[in-house]
Amino acid sequence: MIEFRSVTKRFGDGTVAIEDFSLVVPSRRTTVLVGSSGSGKTTLLRMINRMIDPTSGGIEIDGEDTSTLEPVKLRRRIGYVMQNSGLLPHLKVIDNIATVPILNGVKRALAREQALELLDTVGLDRSLAERYPNQLSGGQQQRVGVARGLAADPNILLMDEPFGAVDPIVRDELQRELIRLQRELGKTVVFVTHDIDEAFLLGDQVVILETGGRVAQVGSPSEIMQSPANEFVASFIGTERGKRALSIRRTARGRVLVDGAGRTAGVLVDEPATTGHDVDSAANSGADSVAQVTVAQDLGADATTGAVLDAAAGPSNEPSGLLAAEPIVR
Amino acid sequence: MNWVLENLPLIGERTLQHLATAVPPVVISFLLAVPIGWLANRFRRVRGTVLTVCGLLYSIPSLPLFVALPALIGTGLTDPSGVIIALTLYGIALMVRVTADGLSSVDLHVTQAANAVGFSEWSRFWRVDLPLAGPVLLSGIRVVSVSTVSLTTVGAVLGVKSLGLFFTDGIQRNIAAEIFTGIVGTVLIALVLDLLLVLIGRVLMPWLPSVSQHATRTTVRSRVAAA
């Protein structure tokens, strides 16, 4: 568990990046800090491993005040994954992954052996081990970055917009991979992004930040989507417009859902697909390109504002959008 | 040509003497310039002062320095140690700025990433900053090497043994072949040392794309474009 206690950060030039920020980050869950630039999300992330020290307030990791810990040692037991991979360009992939264990004093041969296993873990072929980072694609580099973050087997993994610089298809792939990894490894992940869709996809707990690190809302994706705390949150997550404002349209095939732009977002089915098998088969069949959408609650004549679930959301049933109050029925 | 064939042993001896005078300054100035350059880069306030002072060393004329140093350290005028020290100073003058620039040229994202994963300042210098400054350091030491090899010949005026003695002796005795041997020999030493440095760079920095290949390709391309 990571706990922020009334953390304030003022920089030398007088700007207040974070003001009186408090948050509990639960263990073995993914917490996503989401906000636009200037919200202080990266500053908050970097305070966890003491890349930045708070001006006042404190941060505890499992009850231990981080200000009493040696920054370099602290960083070596916290995984860090960043945008543009942050790999060391002069080291081979395998040595990049083995960096932290070697710094920790693990024997070189053993660290390299473990690095090979980590390539498997993040879904990369072992033949890439002897390449240099600039010989890999952006997506492969990010996977190596994740492998490096996991190398010292840390309890905590900090991820600073790790998928921000890759193209949408690769990002989609990496996000799925992270969900799979997290299901297997159960790390305490703190993930920073400005992309609300990414936040809802990955987060067990989503923290929506306004300027200066003010918390607009904390909750599960469902909680936030079903009851946005205020206008800021509602507009930030875009429930009133775009692809999260869904309405029903009748077609020859049955009822479909269309988004704010008039694009068909999915087909309305009656039974929620909640079992793992269905999720997998939906994903494997590529059905997610036209999302399988089910209505969370029984759609009576007047119950038209229910949350809409996405089959790929898995057992947690995270909503993918809200049904607009006045469906367009044609 | 006869002169060359008749004097092969002497040419060999002078070549070795030339190397013995020119190589130590290149190595020593590199070893001294790296920590000084690191200091200049690490402590921004002293950067300007350190770089200017070191740079000014180069403005001292070589001949007076070759004469003054033996007097200061108490060696004979024809002893190579005075020349070695003087050339080391010139090497430092060139190398300190190159080192500071090389270290500051390392991508900020990379150094931040290194900090984030837990490099200490010491380990980061050795394992990240220094290797990544490598290409800049290499081009610096190549300049130092060539300049040192050629400056070594100036010592001949005072009688310090090197290939430079062939110029002075050749001019006095009016033997063109001897003068020519001195010039060609000096150029060859400079070329061989430069080649050696490039090879060392290749071995130490295997992550870089082959520099000469790249350069050749660009030249060819620009020539084609010009045509």
Describe, in plain words, how this protein is organized in 3D.
The complex is a heterodimer of chains A (330) and B (227). Chain A is an alpha/beta fold and 330 residues long. Chain A has 2 domains: 2-234, Rossmann fold (3-Layer(aba) Sandwich); 245-323, no CATH class. Chain A is 30% helix and 28% strand. Chain A contains 10 helices and 16 strands. In chain A, the strands form 3 sheets. Chain A has a 6-stranded mixed sheet, sandwiched between helices. The longest helix of chain A has 18 residues, at 168-185. Chain A is globular, with a radius of gyration of 21 Å. Chain A starts with a strand and ends in a 7-residue tail after the last strand. Residues 275-306 and 311-315 of chain A have low confidence and may be disordered. Chain B is elongated. Chains A and B meet through α2 and α3 of A and α6 and α7 of B.
**What's the pLDDT, averaged over the residues of chain B?**
89
What is the SS-derived class of chain A? alpha/beta
Oligomer status: heterodimer
User: What is the 3D form of chain B?
Assistant: elongated
Q: Low-confidence stretches of chain A at least 5 residues in length (pLDDT < 50)?
A: 275-306, 311-315
Please name the CATH architecture of the largest domain in chain A. 3-Layer(aba) Sandwich
Q: Using the coordinates above, name the CATH class of the largest domain in chain A.
A: Alpha Beta
Helix content bin of chain B: over 70%
What is the general shape of chain A? globular
Rg over CA atoms of chain A: 21 Å
**What value does the average pLDDT of chain A take?**
84
Order of helices and strands of chain A: EEEHEEHEHHHEHEHEEHHEEEHEEE
Q: For the CA atoms, what is the radius of gyration of chain B? A: 21 Å
CATH topology of the largest domain in chain A: Rossmann fold
Find the CATH superfamily of the largest domain in chain A.
Answer: P-loop containing nucleotide triphosphate hydrolases
- SSE-based structural type of chain B: mainly alpha
**Tally of alpha and pi helices of chain A:** 10
